[in-house]
Amino acid sequence: MANWKNLDELKSFDALKAVAPVDVRSVMSGESGAKRVRDYQIPIACGLTYNYGAKAVDAHVLDALAKIAEEADLHVKYQELLNGEMMNTGEKRLVLHHLCRGQLGNDVMADGVNKREFYVEQQKRAADFAERVHAGELTNENGERFTEVVQIGIGGSDLGPRAVYIALENWARKNGRLKMTARFISNVDPDDASRVLQDTDVAHALFILVSKSGTTLETLTNFQFVQDALKRDGLDPKKHMIAVTSAASPLAKSDDFLTAFYMDDHIGGRYSTSSAVGCAVLSLAFGPDVFAEFLEGASAADRASLETDPKKNAAMMDALIGMYERDVLGFDATAVLPYSQALSRFPAHLQQLDMESNGKSVNRFGGPVTYPTGPILFGEPGTNGQHSFYQLLHQGKTIVPLQFIGFRKSQLCSDVEIEGTSSQQKLCANVAAQIVAFACGKDDPDPNKTFDGGRPSSIIAGDQLTPASLGALLSHFENKVMFQGFLWNINSFDQEGVQLGKVLAKRVLAHDTDGALTEYSRLLGI
Amino acid sequence: MANWKNLDELKSFDALKAVAPVDVRSVMSGESGAKRVRDYQIPIACGLTYNYGAKAVDAHVLDALAKIAEEADLHVKYQELLNGEMMNTGEKRLVLHHLCRGQLGNDVMADGVNKREFYVEQQKRAADFAERVHAGELTNENGERFTEVVQIGIGGSDLGPRAVYIALENWARKNGRLKMTARFISNVDPDDASRVLQDTDVAHALFILVSKSGTTLETLTNFQFVQDALKRDGLDPKKHMIAVTSAASPLAKSDDFLTAFYMDDHIGGRYSTSSAVGCAVLSLAFGPDVFAEFLEGASAADRASLETDPKKNAAMMDALIGMYERDVLGFDATAVLPYSQALSRFPAHLQQLDMESNGKSVNRFGGPVTYPTGPILFGEPGTNGQHSFYQLLHQGKTIVPLQFIGFRKSQLCSDVEIEGTSSQQKLCANVAAQIVAFACGKDDPDPNKTFDGGRPSSIIAGDQLTPASLGALLSHFENKVMFQGFLWNINSFDQEGVQLGKVLAKRVLAHDTDGALTEYSRLLGI
Fold first, then answer.
1. What is the spatial distance between Cα B224 and Cα B152, in angstroms, rounded to a whole number?
2. Residues of chain B scoring pLDDT < 70
3. Do residues A364 and A460 both lie within one domain?
4. Deepest of A34, A143, B57, B361, by most Cβ within 10 A of its Cβ?
5. Residues of B whose CB is below 8 A from A424
């Protein structure tokens, strides 16, 4: 049995606080810096490497972190999760997203079935469905092929699948794997659905309604919106719609859909990209083989996260360093900076994954936590960010730890040489340059041109962004967030903080308001 | 002459720190909250209102803030800026973006010309050019109309114009004002340009190269990329290209372009949406009339920012409250939350505007500042964010002040009724609900379902997002950032923090590296 204690109840945490802090600028200079970059790296999977040379750690800090990993039973807790222990204590649910991509522990039985078999069955059903669509066996009412797919969902039913679709769209074009273009409707703002529908060839589009409960306000509203649009065009909505939902939801047996694929309560929305939520849309867009490669990459990174020694476990090390930055060094935020346009929406997915999982103030038993938990997370692709918010990161009064991501090859492999170097080389040169600029800074007689340095960063470097390496990247962050939740002794798998707003919004719509709520409703014309 | 002192040298700042903090939860409850929402609002322009009812202020705090505004000469400094004082002390330049949309001070002479006349002349030239294109007088080599426009630029040459284009595209479609679709190429990642070019009908596309200096690495690389693509299609690049640059740049007189529109050194990139940088692409996309409406909205908000009393000056009040949150209450970040899908990239623009302007550690004379300056800024549209990072905002350990934006009407006015309310009403109900949920929280016997409240927020509410209200919104934030720079006694108009990375990237490409830089270059395959 794992040892569940608050972080500040661990002796090893006291020991960590007593370790002398590392002067990043000093240790990253000269040969010492070169050695750190060579030594401080851990393979993830699928060619990805996590390098923490420029983080504010040294042998003493790393030893202290390793002792915390041990005292907090990080490895044991991960195994218990894989074996189907009830890790989502608030909602009394298991946490089974890993099972969508492999089985690393015991058989997990729940809801009367073997869950690994259940998830694989849903993947097979979605794959068969996608193949029938791609083969032209399943068509619209006029016998014409479906060429587009539109996902209707919000939060975890949107951000992860959307980020993955955008990340692989160019790769799929280049490699002849783009079967159908995908679009996404999420916001209850009617302009979102209106606009996507304007751009969509609805007669040749399949729509996927994604809602676990079948009761998500935004999604049901947009479902109606799309049904109306189909009817206006003389089309039968139920010939264009599939559902991804839980078997118990009102949508599961509805006649409104061609078919339904199932998810369950043991996979939270923000962890559901590997489940039917991502499987249906991504199998339709790219084919089931590509989705299978994505899952294999995630599974490989899941296996790598089983290592007990944090120096060999990238997700665990990333988690420990992030905790150190948050709870000892006192940094509030972290920026994710992918040097890959394809990852333009990956930070938005990580923003949900991290902030919704670990933005908590009570521990997994409902007791208080008195230390900082999950950080603020934001990011944009480089080099765009360099011409935007990097000014504050370099010279602002608040230090923001950084997480770079970079690939040696582009996806489309179409490039141009200027002054003897390709765009891809320029892109990669900028990553290397930024890490060192942030770490080492620069003295200058003009204080305005002085860089203090000492800004810690890590990088995940890979060969190319492919389905497999993207799967590994996603899994790395999921497991990092999981390990951090273990460290903070919080439940990373519920989201009670989203409930109050929903309740009050219903009261506004029912005109059941008083005080400030009445005035704000008036201000907004309701 | 204005009084330039560091914030902590102001007597009124000491007085502010001595004022008792406000318990947001308490004052926002019941009739007190309703009264605050009614009282604490300031008109901006074009139907926009800034409401700060849910901020952590009361009569005592507001009086103290008003005294700071006075002692810091905020009003005088704004007038000096408008009158052409050298406000960009680091680069020894004027700060003239306001002059693009009106003249609120004296004539400003620089570079041997009247700058207002110069900017208006460039607007007229761009308008004439756009009208010739729209009328089919200026065509491609086959005499066919140009139907698309592609902006090539990065940072301020990208984020602002792109955010404005996205914000108005639906409005323009709905109102018959969409003349040409626009796309944007920014990143040096070759997959960015490759992908945009795949989606573009290049034979009928005009490309706008935007670089003030004419030396921006990313932009020149993408220029070459586009030229190559045009040539591959048998097209003459110079019949498809215009430039926006400074009159002194190598691009200004180049034969590579149909024509060039000019900007100058007195308008920084992040403030250049009102200048030729935004004018060319937006006039082509929507027509010069729409761009003129946008400028009129911005000008109206510029005039509103002239009020000396912060209780009547929304931008000044917003700036003062932001400084109070940063320097007295100790919050590191702020989130911008537009409940409008059209504003999906507006936070990314504000991220540059705010973090690049005020992420500084030296004052305008090069002396140190010992207090926090510009905050971390991030955001995504609501209601999407509610299903993502709002968990941390509601229940996390770090309080993040919030800036909501909402409109009573949608842009496309296509909607659906479910359970008696439209999507737009649901969207607006959620804004009202969130503000109150953040402020007032909720007690619950289950600590996991408890909301502490006390999360401060403001809202800018308007009738509809139109060219004029968008101009006012942009100007509000520009002037807020300006007033905050005055408060912090920093130069909000340079960006020395972006230089070091550029220098090191060149060294990597020249293989002139040592230490850690060599190792990171190797890791990234250079």
1. 11
2. none
3. yes
4. B57
5. 189-190
